[in-house]
Design goal:
about 350 residues, mainly beta, Thrombin, subunit H, 3 domains, 7-stranded antiparallel β-sheet, 6-stranded antiparallel beta barrel, 19 strands, about 35% strand, disordered N terminus
Length: about 350
């Protein structure tokens, strides 16, 4: 399957001779692949292409593929050549081999069985709830919890809480947050935002003046008096990603990592000091580079070696000045401070 997806795409974008010259296909790639549960499109593509992040533009360029992202366990995808030109053929769950053609049809397969582009379970929490606000004032000016019913010190799911502030009568629910770290650009020293640590969520039961009564519906940590309430973000969260290179040149770095770990590996979530302002979008792929600085013992001075590539990451959630990314490939443990640029 992997070769089919990747090979057919590349061949549709350019002539076969150009493809062979550029060498996009991995040596020893399979001719066919049967999809199994647990596969991701990234893993499958990585079996066929030297640069697996090219798979979406390759598939989109092939008019024979209706929707290349709807791949299911049991599908077998093969690359064949007809009159010297590549053609993508698919055998789906025991059906006879057929060439995909555009045309209306219904496929009665549960949506949750579709093979995802990347392992979504690795970013689920950050994708849905993590938040960066522009400044600490956004939180200090937001409504805050005054107390809980029966004056409990700590609140959790199904507890009633009372909060004070300016509430939107049209907002049915609020997220509960506590101020986290201020994000500082390591080079410019610009304040890029403030982490709003997700504690839970609550439904609004009633609002009387500046006092609101809410019911806690989700709790990720202890909820206390003084914690802040923010309306749910209106930005659309899409779990379908289409890897691509950023449209503008990016010169950034990893400035943080989820979970408080010091060394970063595959599928770890990282914070990047570039965002909407620089044109980053969900799905953008960035190369991770490292510049090694050592002491030249002969001259007794520091020398910075040329940067070398140590991995790839994909942006999955953006804010004005920062973004969250997931590490897709790494050849060695990554570190905060590693450099980022276009792949």
């Amino acid at each position: 399957m992997r070769k089919s997806l990747l090979g057919a795409a590349l061949l549709c974008l350019m002539s076969w001779s150009a493809i062979a010259a550029d060498g996009p296909m991995k040596n020893g790639h399979p001719d066919t692949y049967e999809v199994v549960k647990g596969d991701t499109l990234w893993d499958i593509s990585n079996s066929f292409l030297n640069s697996p992040w090219l798979w979406p533009e390759i598939w989109h360029a092939n008019p024979q593929i209706e929707n290349p992202h709807l791949i299911y366990p049991g599908d077998v995808i093969s690359l064949v050549y007809i009159d010297g030109k590549p053609r993508l053929t698919v055998t789906s769950r025991g059906e006879a081999s057929r060439t995909i053609k555009l045309g209306p049809k219904v496929r009665s397969t549960p949506i949750d069985s579709v093979i995802p582009a990347i392992p979504l379970d690795k970013i689920n929490s950050l994708l849905k709830r993590s938040r960066v606000v522009a400044s600490a004032e956004v939180l200090t000016g937001a409504p805050y919890i005054v107390t809980a019913a029966q004056e409990r010190v700590v609140s959790g799911v199904d507890d009633t809480i009372y909060a004070r502030g300016n509430f939107d009568s049209n907002a049915p629910a609020y997220g509960i947050y506590r101020q986290g770290d201020i994000i500082i650009d390591p080079k410019t020293k610009e304040a890029l935002g403030v982490m709003a640590v997700d504690l839970g969520a609550a439904d609004v039961k009633q609002i009387r003046g500046e006092i609101a009564t809410l019911l806690v519906t989700r709790s990720e940590s202890e909820i206390r008096a003084g914690d802040r309430l923010l309306e749910s973000e209106e930005r659309r969260i899409d779990s379908t990603f289409y890897p691509s290179a950023p449209e503008a040149a990016i010169d950034g770095e990893i400035v943080g990592v989820a979970g408080g770990i010091s060394q970063i590996g595959q599928f770890d979530n990282v914070l990047v000091n570039r965002g909407d302002r620089e044109g980053l979008k969900p799905g953008n792929i960035l190369a991770i580079n490292r510049k090694l600085t050592v002491i030249d013992e002969k001259r007794k001075e520091q020398v910075t070696m040329p940067a070398h590539r140590v991995g790839l990451l994909m942006i999955f959630k953006t804010f004005e000045k920062v973004s969250f990314g997931i590490v897709l490939e790494t050849t060695e443990p990554l570190l905060v401070g590693d450099q980022l640029e276009n792949p």
